[in-house]
Amino acid sequence: MNLPLERPDRLGFSAWVSGLNAIGTLWIFLIMLLINIDILLRFLFDTPIDGVTEIVEISIAGIVFLQLGDAVRAGRLTRSDGLYNKLVAANPRLGHIFGIFFDLCGAAFFIAILFGAVPTLIESYQHDFYAGSEGIFTVPIWPIRLILCISCVTVVGVFIGFIWRHIRALRNTTLINGGV
Question: What is the DSSP letter of 8?
Fold first, then answer.
């Protein structure tokens, strides 16, 4: 269930999530521009741009993770919630309890990704890991791994916001129903 932002103090976080999404969108545009310029140079002058394949390969993960927080927040992440929506409509209290459980699972999943990603970020930074072919084109991979870590923290924040809203809604439902 997608619960809207209600408090003004959440606007900063909302702007952060939207900003990451906007960066991902701009990145897609720039990648499309790079690919089209590469095709034009290849076709017209038989001189491709070195590294386009590598840039596109590592960009995909960065773009996906930059836009993930907004997808979760807006309820656009792939999920099957038909039964859940019926449950919320029939029994809001139970629906919010399940919502807390589902959002805790989502947060735990991204915390697990974060715990796996931080050591690889540190390792790729300390050891100067690169993608590409040495002598032709190389690009460091630590910035993509940093984006992954930042985005995981952001998605966990989105899930915590959902959990908080479910708790508030659950409290309101309990108060309305007389503590039942």
Answer: G
The C-alpha angle with vertex 56 and arms to 50 and 59, in degrees rounded to 5, equals 130
The values of phi and psi at residue 178, to 5°, are: 75, 30
* Site of tokens 């984006």: 147
Q: List, in sequence order, every beta strand (DSSP E) within 57-121.
A: none
Domain boundaries, the chain: 10-176
User: Hey, which residues does 138 pair with through a beta bridge?
Assistant: 132
| Among candidate residues 128, 150, 149, the one with its CA nearest the CA of residue 140 | 128
State the virtual CA torsion across 63, 64, 67, 70 in degrees, nearest 10: 180
pLDDT digits (tens, 9 = 90+) for 54-95: 999 999 999 999 999 999 998 887 777 778 888 888 888 998
For residues 37-67, one letter each, b for 16 or more C-beta atoms within 10 angstroms of the residue's C-beta and e for the rest, the string is ebeeeeeeeeeebebbbbbeebbeebbebbb
Question: pTM for the full model?
Answer: 0.85
